[in-house]
Design a protein that fits this description.
Layout (H helix, E strand, L loop, with lengths): L1 E5 L5 E5 L7 E3 L3 E5 L5 E4 L6 E9 L7 E4 L7 E4 L6 E4 L16 E7 L4 E5 L5 E3 L8 E4 L12 E10 L5 H9 L1
Length: about 180
């Protein structure tokens, strides 16, 4: 199945979902990824720097589950790691772990993927910063690794995701997170 829509600026987007279990629209609009087979993926021009905002909650914790990635494998990864609630951000290199993404609770997360000047965090926690590497995502995958990989599915409910092709300043980041 495929859905096509036109954005406010006239760009046409097509969402392709394949397989027997496409992502579901549930609740007050959100997408629920089941951790076993649900995912969304779109290829589009996206190179570093980029900023990703996400309003989501993990449902069931699973070591190595991908919450999102670029279209290209391991280029813009937010991944569950080890014991709950540890997550990490990487795009070839990994930043330190974050423990502020709690199963069953919505959080507002951000990731600024900008090589050695990268940072990420959730809600109002202190940013974790460092070098994530120079990978370019070339799009977005939610609920599994980028590329053709069909493993490490994430069990996550997503209310919103915003992708910007800039490294947002702290002031811009605060404005977007507070809206």
């Amino acid at each position: 199945n495929a859905a096509t829509w036109t954005s406010d600026n006239g760009e046409v987007y097509t969402l392709n979902n394949t397989g027997t279990k496409p992502a579901q629209i549930v609740g007050s609009p959100s997408l629920l990824f089941d951790g076993a087979a649900h995912w969304l993926q779109a290829a589009f021009t996206l190179i570093q720097p980029e900023t990703v905002y996400i309003v989501a909650k993990p449902i069931v914790w699973a070591n190595s589950a991908y919450l999102y990635d670029g279209f290209t494998l391991n280029t813009m990864v937010l991944q569950q790691l080890g014991a709950s609630p540890i997550v990490r951000l990487f795009a070839a290199l990994a930043l330190s772990n974050n423990s502020d993404f709690i199963p069953g609770s919505y959080a507002v997360g951000y990731a600024i993927v900008n090589g050695a000047s990268s940072r990420y965090g959730f809600n109002s926690s202190a940013a974790i910063s460092g070098d994530v590497g120079a990978g370019n995502p070339d799009g977005l995958t939610i609920g599994k690794p980028g590329g053709a990989a069909a493993t490490n599915f994430g069990n996550i409910q997503v209310k919103e995701i915003i992708i910007r092709n800039v490294a947002d300043s702290a002031a811009t980041q605060a404005q977007i997170q507070s809206y």
